[in-house]
Specification:
Blueprint (H helix, E strand, L loop, with lengths): L2 E4 L2 E3 L2 E3 L4 E2 L2 E2 L4 E3 L2 E4 L3 E4 L7 H9 L7 E6 L4 H4 L2 H7 L4 E4 L1 H10 L6 E4 L5 E3 L4 E6 L9 E5 L4 E5 L18 H16 L3 H11 L6 E4 L9 H12 L4 E9 L4 H13 L6 E6 L5 H9 L1 E8 L1 E2 L2 E2 L1 H13 L5 E8 L5 H11 L3 E2 L4 E4 L4 H25 L8
Parallel strand pairs: 8-9, 9-10, 10-11, 15-16, 17-18, 17-19, 19-22, 22-23, 22-24
Antiparallel strand pairs: 1-2, 2-7, 3-6, 4-5, 7-8, 12-13, 13-14, 14-15, 20-21
Helix pairs in contact: 5-7, 5-9, 6-7, 8-12, 9-10, 10-11
Bound molecules: MU-OXO-diiron.
């Protein structure tokens, strides 16, 4: 089923209700791949969908118009979740010209045989008239790939924002006001943490560039279209892209025989003695990368624990650390903790990894030989208290803007 954004502008994408693994990202609520059809004196298709759903996209288009009437296909980004239907689409629309950034020539050319496609490079400042409406292009490199761009239709005040402002959520409501605002903001937060975080500097630049546009609707390539809660999603993006963490401590750990778990609980107790600081405990074994990264996004401080195995940290702790390091959450206060027994090395390896994240390590690794004694647990409480004070100071300096989901 299609949905109308404005007269002659329709959503024609695909709702992927069943997907739960999006290259490792756990999509608890499914996903959508959004495509949009603009019918004017000329007709344009904005983005496509994942390859297996090309027929669904073409069916949605033929419900609205003749395929032979499509003049342009805009590819805002070459990642396969949006472009892998292109071979089928371009074969069905041989008359159409594909509009993309210069960088997208590389990504599309690497993935597909583009030799028979009519392609035209566009960039910031370029526009294409459809008649009454205009496609104006804004390159947004690294939001999410170097080839990324957004397409703006000034006459309708619609920004087709590609991955920016997206969320992985399957729903029959195409618009923000047809969904729970709490759910879609939470999904936008999960999406930002797991996909967009490393490019926050570029997002901040994009927000600045977009500030000059009169925006009445933001139509991303995943999830719902923002039309009633634009201020909410823009505020959230300011927090996340400008590194404004909350007064929040995350304690994340993996434990072999419960000693590191006991230390984690004592750190939570100590952190909880600082008024106004939110504290969250996550056991890696019963969580997933997606949830942990989401909690890291808004935590000003992170205590990270692991027992010792083979003179190193536990493998699942190492995997979480690798994921966090890649996401490059900036300016977090932290320390390592954990137990050891006959051999040493877990908390020390973690401490080294936290320094590689370029986080502010506030103390030496907090260690327990076998089961933590009362003295060690008191030290954990004290360290938790110190970390929470640091979280409060970092957040106060950053100027976090509260969201309606807080
Ligand atoms: Fe949704 Fe970067 O692709």
């Amino acid at each position: 089923m299609t949905a109308e954004l404005a007269k002659g502008i329709h959503w024609v994408g695909y709702v992927d209700w069943g997907v739960r693994d999006f290259h490792g990202y756990v999509t608890h609520r499914g996903a959508t791949y959004n495509s949009y059809l603009i019918q004017d004196e000329k007709t344009a298709l904005i983005d496509t969908v994942k390859g297996p759903y090309a027929a669904n996209l073409l069916k949605h288009i033929t419900d609205l118009t003749d395929l032979a009437k499509i003049d342009y296909v805009v590819c805002n980004h070459g990642e396969p979740d949006h472009s892998s239907a292109l071979p089928a689409v371009m074969a069905a629309l041989p008359q159409a010209t594909l509009l993309c950034s210069k960088k997208a020539l590389d990504s599309l050319g690497a993935y597909y045989d583009t030799s028979s496609w009519k392609m035209q490079v566009v960039g910031t400042g370029d526009s294409v008239s459809l008649g009454k409406r205009t496609l104006a292009f804004l390159e947004t490199p690294m939001v999410h790939w170097p080839d990324s761009m957004m397409t703006y239709v000034p006459e309708e005040k619609i920004l087709f924002s590609m991955d920016g402002f997206g969320q992985h959520v399957a729903s029959n409501g195409r618009f923000d006001d047809e969904n729970s605002l709490a759910t879609i903001l939470e999904e936008a937060r999960i999406y930002y943490a797991n996909i967009v975080t490393p490019y926050s500097g570029k997002v901040a630049e994009t927000l600045q560039a977009a500030a000059g546009l009169d925006i009445g609707m933001i139509a991303p390539s995943h999830g719902v279209i923002w039309r009633s809660h634009i201020a909410d999603i823009l505020k959230a993006y300011r927090n996340w892209s400008q590194v404004k963490p909350k007064k929040k401590v995350l304690v994340v750990f993996d434990s072999m025989w419960g000693s590191t778990a006991k230390m984690a609980e004592a750190i939570v107790e100590g952190a909880s003695t600082v008024p106004g600081v939110e504290v969250k405990l996550i056991a890696i074994r019963t969580s997933d990368f997606t949830e942990i990264a989401t909690e890291m996004l808004e935590s000003a401080a992170i205590a990270f624990g692991s027992s010792t195995l083979n003179r190193d940290m536990l493998p699942m702790a190492a995997a979480v650390l690798t994921y966090a390091r890649g996401l490059r959450f900036p300016d977090r206060a932290t320390f390592a903790f954990g137990s050891y027994g006959w051999g040493v090395g877990g908390p020390e390896a973690l401490d080294k990894g936290l320094k590689e994240c370029k986080w502010e390590v506030i103390r030496e690794p907090l260690k327990s030989k076998f089961k933590p004694t009362d003295k060690v647990l008191d030290e954990c409480r004290e360290a938790g208290h110190q970390l929470a004070n640091r979280a409060a100071a970092i957040s106060a300096g950053a100027g976090y803007e509260p969201l309606m989901i807080d």
